[in-house]
Amino acid sequence: MTHEIAVIPGDGIGQEVTPAAVEVLEALDVDFDFVEGDAGDAVKAETGEALPQATRKMAADADATLFGAAGETAADVILPLREVVGSFANVRPAVSYPGLDAVQPDTDIVFVRENTEGVYSGIEDEITEGVRTLTRVVTEEASRDIAEFGFDYAKQNGFDDVTIAHKANVMRETDGLFLETAEAVAEERGADYDTALMDALAMHLVMHPEDYGVVICPNLAGDMLSDLAAGLVGGLGLLPSANVGEENALFEPVHGSAPDIAGQGVANPSAMILSAAMLLDHLGYDDEGDRVRAAVEGVLDEGPRTPDLGGDASTDEVTSAVLDRL
Ligand code: ATP
Ligand code: MG
């Protein structure tokens, strides 16, 4: 069976790390048909559109999408793309690797982030000069979807600890509904869980990440807490993510286009290659996904390493080392 994969490198280091992930997928004994699409600042400058219709269609028709990064136009690209693939869950594992000098070496947390609403509703207004508002949307349906996904994910992947992050003491209506709905899902399943106020959780994550497994989060909280966790395990160059829908899915690193290092050939390809490993899991190639993770883990442990991890290797050198291990 051939799987059609839409590949959208985008801007900045997306152009450098996406080919690395494609090379890794090509090295496996799985039939892929790659189709490449444009998105981001560069194509907007050329055509006026950050996400051309052709790219949209490519992602909609493919079995899965690999996306690199977009710069200034990120919101115009990734929010619609997540919609195109019908994604409601953003899965962001933050794992510490042996051999890396991480702030917290015992981190193994998966953030399951609601991906369709909250403050990302896009409903912003200027009600009068100098006063602007944002409407935070929380629905029972999306809250139920993300909670069910989170508890299923924990069960399928052997996590004992599930934490529901919220700020229902302040956002009583919106996060009240999120919390109440997620707790109802847990009760229905007879699943154990904890709840945590997201601010206190940020502190506890820094001090005791080992206490957490799956963390189910509203949209913005999931974005911020997963970046925080990236810092605990060695930086943004390491964190992959999956945007999962009912039928389709899109895989992307947590990092952005990193304009400060773009074009130098030194971006860490690990986050992108680990995103490809999540794509393999998603398509049912769990063994291949594990092989890719083991290869990346081996390289992180023994080198070569890119400058963000204290080394002086290039993106290509790290990618070759991963391919050698495969
Ligand atoms: P964007 O607006 O596209 O998100 P940004 O300026 O926020 O751009 P990020 O990509 O989010 O940049 O990166 C934040 C920091 O982390 C930058 O200093 C960047 O160099 C570093 N970084 C991110 N990804 C990587 C990577 N894959 N390898 C090395 N460093 C990285
Ligand atoms: Mg960024």
Automatic annotation (TrEMBL):
**Protein name per UniProt:** 3-isopropylmalate dehydrogenase
Carries keyword Protein transport? no
Question: According to its UniProt record, which protein family does this protein belong to?
Answer: Belongs to the isocitrate and isopropylmalate dehydrogenases family.
Q: Which domain of life is it from?
A: Archaea
Q: Which SUPFAM superfamilies match?
A: Isocitrate/Isopropylmalate dehydrogenase-like
Q: Where is the Isopropylmalate dehydrogenase-like domain?
A: 4-322
Under the heading PANTHER family, the entry gives: DECARBOXYLATING DEHYDROGENASES-ISOCITRATE, ISOPROPYLMALATE, TARTRATE, ISOCITRATE DEHYDROGENASE [NAD] SUBUNIT ALPHA, MITOCHONDRIAL
Annotated GO biological process: isocitrate metabolic process; tricarboxylic acid cycle
Q: Would the keyword rRNA-binding be found if you checked this record's keyword annotation?
A: no
Q: Which UniProt keywords apply?
A: Oxidoreductase
Q: Which GO terms describe its molecular function?
A: isocitrate dehydrogenase (NAD+) activity
